[in-house]
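> call design_seq(struct)
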């Protein structure tokens, strides 16, 4: 007998929302269309649990898609936010928190000596590309199929047919000219990277060093080294988009855990501790090209906002070495448990510290084509069955689960029991 979910209040709110918000939401994945149901309206989060408008309680494995590595409403983070807000929410003038946060980032990330803050990862990635173009005097960029770097025009490109192709707009409204300088290459394809590099002069190669926007698809052995080597040989910058991996896969992100050093780093999500903050950074030489130190223009009314900065600082202060050991243990237990729950069904559980994806696939997934070949309908049935039993999964096959420092052993055990029952409902 399948479990069910009360959703009367959520349905009422969704009907109202559809009237005033496109698709009823302010960001597409929240609508849950990819798993074939309507969204649930959240009223409260407590640690790793969510409470919705009908009083349903869920173990939350999304946690705002990455920022909440300490779970919802962590008391120390909330105290820092309240204290900052009481002193004023925005000044449009420098504050000490911005300096402290930038110093903390430079202590953690080996490739970052200097930081410029923005309000969103989209802005940070767009601005890093602008800087790369300014510093190289070139326009073309290399991006990977299935990688997401925010929704700025030039990065909202998808691959045409063929190996290394000129990007075509991934959305109506993106001018063909905006993606004409974006070359798209399949992730983990060594030859396609070499071929693109031999054909073009690039301003930058931009990559998620731990791609998690096509589901989690880690780099093959040596692939990040290849990107470093090929970027340098080409005279291009290497940009790591660590909006997800930064402060999650390790204290200093993937650049620390892999030892592959990019020229520019894009940060977001955890750096804002659940409030809107993001950043890009790199060497003094590159970053001092940014206005007003240099001539590359980039600005923001709420950039380095004191409340967001306080949340980011409080979040990072709680992320010491022991935190990463605990996060790794929780991740491993989740991944192992999901694998056992799936048994011999066609499911691949891929994981790295702080990230897990359950691909509904016979084969391990190495690239976007593999992710797209997954059985999204079966994944949707599984997610609906999880929700009905009190577990809140990412509502898309192309996203990761976000294990956190707030998930308890009991919540983990409950999740795995529910996952097994939900697999039983799919097959
Ligand atoms: C979320 C994300 C972004 C965009 O950040 P926003 O704050 O949503 O604009 C960019 N890159 C990666 C890798 C992301 O996961």
């Amino acid at each position: 007998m399948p479990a069910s979910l009360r959703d009367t209040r959520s349905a009422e709110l969704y009907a109202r929302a559809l009237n005033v918000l496109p698709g009823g939401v302010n960001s597409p994945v929240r609508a849950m269309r990819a798993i074939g149901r309507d969204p649930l309206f959240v009223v409260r989060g407590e640690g790793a649990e969510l409470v919705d408008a009908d009083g349903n309680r869920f173990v939350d494995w999304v946690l705002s898609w990455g920022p909440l590595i300490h779970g919802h409403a962590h008391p120390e983070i909330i105290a820092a936010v309240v204290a900052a807000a009481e002193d004023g929410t925005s000044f449009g003038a420098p504050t000490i928190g911005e300096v402290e946060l930038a110093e903390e980032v430079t202590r953690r990330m080996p490739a970052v000596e200097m930081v410029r803050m923005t309000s969103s990862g989209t802005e940070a990635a767009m601005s890093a590309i602008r800087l790369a173009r300014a510093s190289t005097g070139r326009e073309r960029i290399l991006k990977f199929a299935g990688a997401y770097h925010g929704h700025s025009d030039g990065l909202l490109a998808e691959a045409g047919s063929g190996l290394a192709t000129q990007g075509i707009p991934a959305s109506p409204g993106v001018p063909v000219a905006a993606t004409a300088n974006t070359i798209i290459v399949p992730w983990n394809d060594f030859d396609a990277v070499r071929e693109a590099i031999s054909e073009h002069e690039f301003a930058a190669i931009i990559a998620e060093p731990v791609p998690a926007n096509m589901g989690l698809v880690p780099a093959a052995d040596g692939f990040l080294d290849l990107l470093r080597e090929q970027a340098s040989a080409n005279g291009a910058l290497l940009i790591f988009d660590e909006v997800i991996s930064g402060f999650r896969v390790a204290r200093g992100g993937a650049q620390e855990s892999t030892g592959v050093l990019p020229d520019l780093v894009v940060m977001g999500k955890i750096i804002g501790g659940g409030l809107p903050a993001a950043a890009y950074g790199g060497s003094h030489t590159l970053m001092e090209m940014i206005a007003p130190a240099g001539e590359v223009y980039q600005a923001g009314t709420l950039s380095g906002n004191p409340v967001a900065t306080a949340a980011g600082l409080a979040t990072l202060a709680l992320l010491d070495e022991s935190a990463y050991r605990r996060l790794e243990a929780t991740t491993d237990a989740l991944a192992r448990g999901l694998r056992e729950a799936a048994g011999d069904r066609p499911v691949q559980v891929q994981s790295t510290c702080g990230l897990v994806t359950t691909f509904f696939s016979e084969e391990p997934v190495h690239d976007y084509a593999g992710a797209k070949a997954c059985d999204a309908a079966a994944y949707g049935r599984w997610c609906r069955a999880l929700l009905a039993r009190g577990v809140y999964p990412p509502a898309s096959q192309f996203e990761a689960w976000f294990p956190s420092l707030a998930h308890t052993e009991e919540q983990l055990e409950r999740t795995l029991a529910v996952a097994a029952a939900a697999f039983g409902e799919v097959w």
